[in-house]
Amino acid sequence: MSSCSSHQAAADRPNVIRLDYAYYNPVSLVLKQNGWLETDLKRENVQVEWVLSQGSNKALEFLNARSIDFGSTAGAAALIGKANGNPIKSIYVYSKPEWTALVTRADSPIKTVADLKGKKVAATRGTDPYIFLLRSLDQVGLSEKDIELIQLQHADGRAALEKGDVDAWAGLDPHMAKTELEKGSKLFFRKPDFNSYGVLNVREEFAQKYPKYVEQVLANYEKARQWAQQSPAELKQVLVREAKLTNTVAAKQLERTDLSNSRIGEEQKQVILAAGNVLKKSGVIQDAVDVEQTVTALIDPQFIAKVASR
């Protein structure tokens, strides 16, 4: 009888929970550094593993491959994943950032989005900077077909801009803050409302199987977010150390990062929906996809609602 009940208990919990950490998600860095989740789960004999995500596209790949259970992305990037059949739910807001803008070198003649016509522009497909670029082009009657898109991961995009291999770059912090402060690169087009929130996603299968552990992860995320809000100087040092940044670059990134709300819901839905409509128009999301229905299926506020009301 006891062996049966212990087997049942083991089936009710995972042996390991895998999360990503990302330099664009400062709360993940705090959680990883402080080891609160490890301490919390040790009592139940559940291990924690951390995997570095270099961008939303990588986090989505890891989630789809089941190599992580929780992944950090931009809201609109999560929508692309969901529309392409990635079985995920967006369950938490880790930040409201202005983490992307369109960037050129200090000596560039480019002044407006319209000036990008016919130019080489670096971006990472499937991420918020890429979506920001598409929305920016759409605003002035242009599309991806009007530029030469150079597909590069974020850090390589920054290097290509600085070397002069591309004319512009759809930037992402902290790389964007770094080139802005250290190379005098110009953020020539900014629009905070086109940034689609930082969201934490969970694999649907994990959420269905282990709802209690989803709440446990979010409770620890909340602890890290609140610590980050209350300890700005310490937060900056975590970012400096983990992402290997200077104090000034870390400060610039955090200046553009709002950590005051973690609940996901209607506000995020509207921002992601607006991005989704442009993604559909641009052919990134297929015509057959019902964007509104997909956004509704993506956003799941139940877990953070339970955690926040404790």
What would you report as the Rg, rounded to the nearest angstrom?
20 Å
CATH first level of the largest domain: which class?
A: Alpha Beta
Classify the oligomer: single chain
The SSE string, one letter per element, is HEHHEHEHEEEHEHEHEEHHHHEHHH
**Separation, N- and C-terminal Cα atoms:** 35 Å
Question: Mean pLDDT, nearest integer?
Answer: 94
Give a summary of the structure in a few sentences:
This protein has 310 residues and is of the alpha/beta class.
Question: Mind explaining what this structure looks like?
Answer:
The structure is a single chain. This protein is an alpha/beta fold. It has two domains: 2-96 and 197-308, D-Maltodextrin-Binding Protein, domain 2, CATH 3.40.190; 102-194, Periplasmic binding protein-like II (D-Maltodextrin-Binding Protein, domain 2, 3-Layer(aba) Sandwich). Helices cover 49% and strands 17% of the residues. The protein contains 15 helices and eleven strands. β6, α6 (128-139) and β7 form a beta-alpha-beta unit. α8 (175-182) crosses α12 and α10 packs across α15 (302-308). The chain starts with a helix and ends with a helix. 48% of the residues are buried.
